[in-house]
Amino acid sequence: VSARNPPPESAKLNILLSREVVAIAKKGELIEVTMKDGEVMQADYVISTLPLGVLKTGTPTFDPPLSVSKTDAIERLAFGNVAKISILFESAWWASKITVDWFGITRSGETARGLSTQYVNMHKVAGKPVLMTFAVGPAADAVDGMSDAAVWNATLANLKVIFGESVPPSTYKAITVQRWGTDPYARGCYSHHSTTSQGSDYAAMGSDEYGGRLLFAGEATDETFYGSAHNALLTGQRAARAVLRAEEIAPAESLNSGTKQAPGIAAFLLCAATLLTSLFGWSK
Fold it and tell me: What is the pLDDT at residue 267?
């Protein structure tokens, strides 16, 4: 964030992709960000949205080191593993039988009970014939090592139990399995308290460093809605407001204020619909 020399209003936001950050350092009044390829960038402010799982690996490095309260919180808070499975069909073959947003089935067995047993009816919100399901607990670890075809076979077996042997189609149009557990830029998902974490740890995760020049946002940086996409959105707005206030660039109210109003299922479905648009290339 270059506050001293902001781009003209007509300029487009310059988003750089495929740039892996390996080091963040305070250099006087500036923050220096070093990329894996050796490129170095400087900014007045840096807003880090690194997932908790990545921070737990010790990469990127921070110089000077982060505060003890933050490093302790990073160590104590837990980070889970969930695989999200989105399946696009030729038609919404379940629509005449299922009208609710969420439905599921119970299964026995450590892995089977967490693999494709809960379904989100994305047809209602995205207008496309999509079912979204999940792998949680030991099942998520199992999916990390499974092919998409194997995941589909397990999912199809459960759909046949729910709807009947002949109802679900044997094929799909597209499938996306998000394996966050093995993604080096995620290292898991959904932060939560552990047996050793403290009530102040989420506040520590969201606190700024380097005299307010390094700010943090993301689902694990506020206790209000931790483990959710809307917490990431709200804390991102919080960090942006902090920069606006510090530099008096614009009224802080120019971004939605507050993080205490629960967005609820509508916000979840909106985030999910946006994700599906990205995955399947939908424009509307």
Answer: 45
Tokens in use for 49? 């949205």
The pTM of this model reads 0.80
Between residues 3 and 224, the one the model is more confident about: 224
Summarised one tens digit per residue, pLDDT across range 149-189 is 999 999 999 999 999 999 999 999 999 999 999 999 999 99
Residue with tokens 């506040």: 203
First to last CA, the chain: 32
Contacts of residue 8, Cβ cutoff 8 Å, sequence gap at least 6: none
Q: For residue 47, which of 248, 244, 257, 224 has the smallest C-alpha distance?
A: 244
What 3-state DSSP class applies to 83?
strand
Alpha helices in the chain (DSSP H): 52-55, 68-76, 123-126, 138-143, 148-163, 201-206, 229-247, 264-280
Average pLDDT over residues 114-129: 92
The one-letter code for the residue type at 19 is R
Contact predicate 21/61, CB 8 Å: no
| Geometric angle at alpha carbon 127, from 168 and 226, rounded to 5° | 95
Closest CA to 76 of 49, 55, 50: 55
Q: What pLDDT score was predicted for residue 281?
A: 53
pLDDT at 279 over 70: no
Alpha carbon distance 134, 155 (integer Å):
10
